[in-house]
Design brief:
mainly alpha; 79% helix; globular
């Protein structure tokens, strides 16, 4: 069932745009409301108070749906939760929108890239496009791959846990520093797994050399290993045009997800 849930959610995320129905403003308001009322408590306790109730609710719903109607309600619930935890913005929609905008009107489109992916380069240059490509790789992990990874291990609770921790870290409220450290721990294995999938979907020799060198590095190297393996996989320095490199990055992500699905299917069948 896990494989089918991941397959359906990933296909829907890849080919449809759910931004208009998927938002986390309620959690931001809830987080701020609790932070104000618990500001005197230790940061670890504040983070626990913020994160635990949604996890308990999701876990309780999954438990009560588990045995009904041959598992169909639990299946539907899991697909909905997983889809909701992806993103929240659609990676492919935003990336292709930015690529097309840069091709038509580079200077004015750079603001869109900065808003969507946090790229801060000031001119439409090679440095800017390389930063954009790296941001695409990081977004593929934070928006999709790590959520899928923790869903496969822990079900809907795992997907919600990662998204909540990532949200607290992003909003920089009380507990954000601790949430950032927890997120780095949650990212450590899936980052290296996605980087290895980049090797399988790209230039294996170059990526594997990079992956083997950094695979056992600490938490602060998470972003470095993912982006360097991604850049090596598409051989970004040799691609003739910036837009080609960015499209190759998205194509590599597609291939990595397909390979990951095949591996998951094999694990399910052999298990």
């Amino acid at each position: 069932m896990t494989f089918m849930i991941v397959l359906i959610a990933l296909l829907l995320e890849r080919f449809f745009h759910w931004h208009h129905v998927r938002h986390w403003r309620w959690f931001l308001n809830y987080e701020r409301w609790l932070s104000v009322r618990t500001s005197a408590l230790p940061a670890a306790l504040i983070l626990l108070i913020i994160v635990l109730p949604p996890l308990l609710i999701v876990g309780a719903i999954q438990y009560f749906l588990a045995d009904g109607w041959w598992g169909a309600p639990e299946f539907i619930f899991s697909v909905i939760v997983l889809l909701y935890c992806l993103g929240p913005d659609n990676l492919w929609v935003q990336a292709y929108h930015c690529i097309n905008a840069l091709a038509k009107d580079g200077p004015n489109a750079m603001g869109a890239v900065q808003t969507a992916f946090g790229v801060t380069a000031t001119e439409n240059s090679t440095v800017f496009h390389q930063a954009f490509i790296r941001a695409i790789f990081l977004a593929s992990h934070q928006r999709i791959f790590s959520v899928l990874f923790w869903f496969v291990l822990w079900g809907p609770v795992g997907a919600v846990l990662y998204r909540l921790i990532e949200s607290v870290n992003t909003q920089m409220l009380i507990g954000a520093t601790l949430a950032g450290r927890i997120k780095a721990v949650l990212d450590w294995i899936p980052v290296r797994l996605e980087a290895f999938l980049f090797a399988l979907g790209g230039h294996f020799t170059a990526v594997f050399a990079c992956w083997k060198r950094d695979v056992l590095t600490g938490l602060r190297y998470n972003d470095k290993i993912l982006t360097e393996c991604g850049m090596a996989a598409i051989d970004a320095d040799r691609l003739p045009e910036a837009s080609v490199a960015e499209k190759e990055a998205l194509a590599l992500i597609d291939r990595a997800f397909i390979i990951g699905l095949v591996v998951l299917a094999m694990v399910v069948l052999l298990g």
